[in-house]
Design a protein that fits this description.
Elements (H helix, E strand, L loop, with lengths): L7 H31 L15 E8 L5 E6 L4 H7 L23 E4 L5 E2 L5 E2 L10 E2 L5 H5 L6 H14 L16 H7 L3 E2 L1
Parallel strand pairs: 1-3, 6-7
Antiparallel strand pairs: 1-2, 4-5
Length: 195
């Protein structure tokens, strides 16, 4: 059997059509792959039994970055806390079961340390707790400063570096000279600290 002859022009047109079809198919396959890899979506593929491959948990309280996080099935409370940036210095992890398995939709609440009564009857805080009384800028450690709202480890270290270089704080207003503390943050800290 003899195949029909095609002209050179027909062969070129057929080749161009085939290349365009391949390019369109490749582009569709590529866009489907890239959109799914940009942000993993919870898959319904069971890992064991009825659990899904990913869980959503709300991490709140004394953690660096509270929020909604996606974790793998079988993850523990400790994994969720680490995903949220870890516990702050104010966290009381003795009240949290770090080994507990997470379930989908669960909230992990990391409490802060509370004030305790001092032997003389006055109210005191643990060295890393959230202060009920103003925190002393000239004697506070970086961990204690980190418990203040809006003050993270970097700003806490800048406060210590400032007092080391310039001497003790005479007024709370001197905090404005510390890099990272502006008027808004100073207003927020004014009732929480003393020189």
């Amino acid at each position: 059997m003899q195949l029909p002859e095609i002209s050179r022009r027909q062969a070129v047109v057929a080749a161009v059509v085939a290349l365009v079809a391949l390019a369109v198919c490749g582009r569709l396959a590529g866009s489907a792959g890239s959109s799914s890899s940009a942000r993993p979506v919870a898959r319904l593929t069971p890992v064991s039994g009825t659990s899904s491959a990913r869980l959503y948990v709300d991490v709140a309280g004394a953690v660096r970055r509270p929020g909604l996080y996606q974790v793998r099935a079988g993850a523990r409370v400790n994994d969720a806390i680490l995903t949220a940036g870890g516990a702050t210095a104010a966290a009381d992890l003795t009240l949290v079961n770090l080994a507990a398995l997470l379930t989908d939709g669960e909230q992990v609440l990391v409490p802060a340390k509370v004030a305790s009564a001092a032997p003389d009857g006055s109210t005191a805080t643990s060295s890393q707790g959230t202060p009920n009384a103003p925190l002393h800028l000239n004697s506070a450690t970086a961990e204690e400063l980190d418990t203040l709202p809006g003050v993270g480890p970097t700003t806490a270290q800048r406060i210590i570096d400032y007092r080391t270089k310039h001497g003790p704080f005479a007024t709370v207003d001197e905090l404005d000279a510390v890099s990272g503390i502006g008027p808004a943050k100073l207003a927020e800290l004014r009732d929480l600290v003393v020189p």
